[in-house]
Here is the input.
Amino acid sequence: MNIAIILSGCGNRDGSELQETLSLLLAIDRRGWHYQCFAPQGEYAVVSHLDGNEHGDRRDILVESARIARGDIQPLTQYRAADFDALALPGGMGAARNLSSYAFDGEAMTVRPDVEQAILDAYRQHKPVLAMCIAPMVLAKVLGPEGVKLTLGGENAASHAAAKLGADVQHCGVTDVCVDSQHHVYTTPAYMVGTRISEIFAGAENMVAALERDGQ
Here is the structure.
């Protein structure tokens, strides 16, 4: 199994959530599978992880994502769905700020064209798409019109917005996995409801295990 992973920066407030991303990478690696990280290029506003505020700094999504991937990362423009068995998006507010505009526009959100194209390419080739935490909001925007089933944890603003976009939203516990067998979509709530890193890894492990069981 070879899985493409789209990162959105480095850090839960303005990029990919580190604990979710590393849990996903570990769950993949423990099976002897392979992964390749990708990220779009372009600047984003940096959010302080101490006070939660923007302080005027801007950084490049790809450059910051390379910190997580230890430099083994490619621009998203190089992603080809045919080269991979699945596509995965870990959570973190980068999914809501950098891959999409959900953090700013709510249900009126847009998705970066390169991210939308990557998801659609995987979906149209019947490749599984996995997402954690807030990242299923990106899937709700892109695949909501298809009636895709997904989870964003429990009752919250994101779940309401996703439903308005056409998604069939399921409520799940932190280690649960929402599996949409028809659309080949796998989602888990992670830090939408979780509080401990052990819960996050269990959710990532269960999501990858569900993919494995389905023989995708």
Observations:
- The CA atoms of residues 156 and 192 lie 9 Å apart.
